Amino acid sequence: MRYNTEWKDYSVIATGDGMKLERWARDIILLRPDPQVIWKTDCDMYKYPGLTAYYSRSNTGGGMWHYKKDIDEFTVGWRNLRFKLKLMGFKHTGLFPEQAVNWSTMINLINNAKRPIKVLNLFAYTGGATLACMSAGAKVTHVDSARAMIDRAKENIKLSNLDVSNARFIQEDCVKFVQREIRRGNKYDAIIMDPPSFGRGPNGEKWKIEEEIFSLVELCKQVLSDKPLFFLINSYTTGLQPQVLNNILTKILKDYNGYTYSYEVGLPTEEKGIILPAGASGLWSKDKIDE
Fold first, then answer.
1. How far from chain centre, in Å, is Cα 11?
2. Which contiguous run of DSSP H or E holds residue 159?
3. Beta strands 28-33 and 51-57: pairing type?
4. Distance separating alpha carbons of residues 2 and 277, to the nearest angstrom
5. Rg of the chain's alpha carbons, rounded to an integer?
6. Which of 38, 103, 174, 181 is a Cys-bridge partner for 132, taking CB atoms 3.0 to 4.6 Å apart?
7. Is the pLDDT score of 197 beyond 90?
8. Three-state SS for 261?
9. What end-to-end distance do the CA atoms of the chain give, in Å?
10. Which residues have C-beta within 8 Å of that of residue 45, sequence separation ≥ 6?
């Protein structure tokens, strides 16, 4: 398992009974469901001092936030990057802190490339990976079907004092966009994808990751440049183990000389010996990386 220890504006305080207690921006305490937390808690997290809000699921699907204190938008930082967050539906805040471990890897790969790098970021959400790559000097095409997420990514770029002209924003179904890029002959040195387990595009396109991921990676191979730097797949789907992502990348990118890695992504916690699983990643890289 890999995890990043550089966060100063985020930490997992405690876990148990299907919930995780988190500290954001030093003084915002959130309690959210986490399906990986199947062990018992050591404390009553609902009574934690300073609890700001907690999220409860509904028996009919979805859920809602319950506020102990008034809270508006807030900002967190990682290295030189800044992200504006808010409490949203489906328990989200607008950022997945566990991805910092991949941000760090991509920054190192781009810095070490010593050449201009073009990145395609699919299902790009609020731009964590986009900002990381831009901070290393890459130009990024940021694709997401939700206008609100693209707008938030633009805000995060400005907050981080990055040059927005180095990003191209596309609101579209990711598969259709890649198909168009193939026809146009556009190429990228690196590809990132963070697909949902289930989803719909802006025109009702259906997505189910187990059925679509292999075909999408095959499709994306056609927009790789002659000298690709890396290809990263993230998954939060329990059934897609790291080795599955490794196998997909190995089969599809077998014509390229490079290295394939797969690993669980996690979050360290303030509980002794407890690391919280938070998904899986598969990475193909032209260069060997430290494990």
1. 17
2. helix 147-159
3. parallel
4. 10
5. 19
6. 103
7. no
8. strand
9. 10
10. 14, 16, 17, 19, 21, 31, 51
Q: Where are the beta strands (DSSP E) in the chain?
A: 10-16, 19-24, 28-33, 51-57, 63-67, 74-78, 81-85, 118-122, 139-144, 167-171, 190-193, 198-200, 206-208, 230-235, 259-268, 275-285
Contacts of 51 (CB under 8 A, 6+ apart): 29, 31, 45, 68
87 near 71, Cβ under 8 Å? Answer: yes
Q: What is the dihedral of CA 40, 278, 86, 164, to 10 degrees?
A: 170
208 beta partners:
198
Using CA atoms, how far residue 16 sits from 13, 34, 53, 63, 276, in Å, is: 11, 9, 17, 19, 10
Please give the Cα distance from 142 to 170 (Å, whole number).
6
pLDDT digits (tens, 9 = 90+) for 65-120: 999 999 999 999 999 999 999 999 889 999 999 999 999 999 999 999 999 999 99
Mean model confidence pLDDT for the chain: 94
Q: How far is CA 101 from CA 195, 211, 280, in A?
A: 18, 27, 11
Cβ-based neighbours of 73, under 8 Å, separated by 6 or more: 84, 85, 86
> Can you tell me the distance from the alpha carbon of 218 to that of 180, in angstroms, rounded to the nearest whole number?
15
Q: How far apart are CA 10 and CA 29, in angstroms?
A: 10
Please enumerate in sequence order all residues whose Cβ is within 8 A of that of 116, keeping only pairs 6 or more positions apart, or say none. 137, 138, 139
Average pLDDT over residues 143-160: 96
Give pLDDT, residue 58: 85
SS3 105: helix
The sign of the torsion formed by the CA atoms of 147, 151, 157, 163 equals positive
